[in-house]
Design goal:
By secondary structure, this protein is of the alpha+beta class. The protein has helices at residues 4-17, 38-45, 127-130, 143-152, 157-162, 172-182, 195-214, 276-279; strands at residues 23-28, 34-35, 50-56, 59-64, 67-72, 77-82, 92-98, 103-108, 114-119, 255-259, 262-266. Strands 2-9-5-4-3 form a 5-stranded mixed sheet, covered by helices on one side. It has a 4-stranded antiparallel sheet with strand order 1-7-8-6, covered by helices on one side. The radius of gyration is 20 Å and the shape is elongated.
Length: 280
């Protein structure tokens, strides 16, 4: 699933490609991708100009003349931009045709993504966006906030960080990487860390995501940004997808377990539940 760095890269690419373009027509070939009435969706977008493309957590927000278009890419959704003819693909589901002859196509192999058109200024008021925590690279994500929020939480570290209500944008890849950098086991109780451990985790999240954004995200399977470019952060992974390989810090083989149904990668030595490695 595209996480914050990947969605940020898509946002930046779309701002380069379609900003200020005016929509001439819209075709929807898979109605279930649209939240609400797809016929109204198509009609209301005609003659709308794209002002800017923003992001909140893992959601893209396309700001139009009179509306906001919320897009969640889910597992494998992506946008392709075409200046002339659109190649045929059974995975092309939503077509935005602009008055200058170019087109933006939403492609989704699994058809899990969702598009929702709301009145201007109402995107952040939608239930699935209103409950989101602060942006990890924004001013609101302070250490004091983070400590207070985690101490009030109930659950294990990884599931709590994935929940999006304490901090947004973290998915499987970047939680695993942040916990490795902070030297914390994914099964630690989120409300029982020391202040130093909270500080390490807070800094690790900022550090990992900052580099991932700089690298354009991670291309593990099919992800590409709106410019058709792959991310490069996978070259900097320390635990995710490295099961059995030696830990870059201590040499112990990386392990993979299932935690709340999610594949979870960690070093059993320097992310020990009892922190023996830090004390050695």
């Amino acid at each position: 699933m595209p996480e914050l760095p990947e969605v940020e890269a898509v946002k930046e690419g779309l701002n380069q490609l379609i900003r200020h373009k005016t929509i001439q027509s819209v075709d929807v070939l898979w109605d279930n991708l649209i939240l609400g009435d797809s016929t109204r969706f198509k009609q209301m977008l005609v003659n709308q100009q794209i002002e800017t493309i923003g992001r909140r957590g893992k959601f893209l927000i396309i700001n139009l003349t009179d509306f906001q278009l919320i897009s969640h890419l889910r597992m494998e959704g992506k946008y392709d931009y075409y200046r002339t003819e659109i190649p045929s693909s059974k995975h092309n589901h939503v077509f935005f045709h602009f008055i200058d002859g170019t087109s933006l196509v939403y492609n989704d192999v699994r058809k899990f993504g969702r598009l929702q058109l709301v009145n201007k200024g109402m995107a952040l008021e939608q239930p699935n966006l209103r409950k989101l925590g602060p942006e990890p690279l924004g001013d609101a994500f302070t250490l004091n906030y983070f400590i207070h929020a985690l101490k009030k939480s109930r659950g294990l570290l990884k599931p709590v960080l994935l929940a999006q209500n304490i901090v947004v944008g973290l998915g499987n890849i970047y939680v695993d990487e942040s916990l490795w950098q902070a030297q914390l086991h994914p099964k630690r109780a989120a409300n029982q860390l020391t202040n130093k451990e909270y500080q390490r985790l807070h800094q690790a999240i900022i550090s990992v995501l900052s580099l991932a954004v700089e690298m354009g995200g991670s291309t593990i399977r099919t992800y590409k940004n709106a410019l058709g470019e792959a991310g490069q952060f996978q070259q900097h992974l320390h635990v995710y997808g490295r099961t059995g390989l030696p830990c870059d810090r201590c040499g112990q083989p990386i392990e993979k377990i299932k935690l709340n149904g999610r594949g979870t990668h960690f070093c059993p030595r320097c992310q020990s539940l009892n922190n023996d490695f830090l004390d050695s």
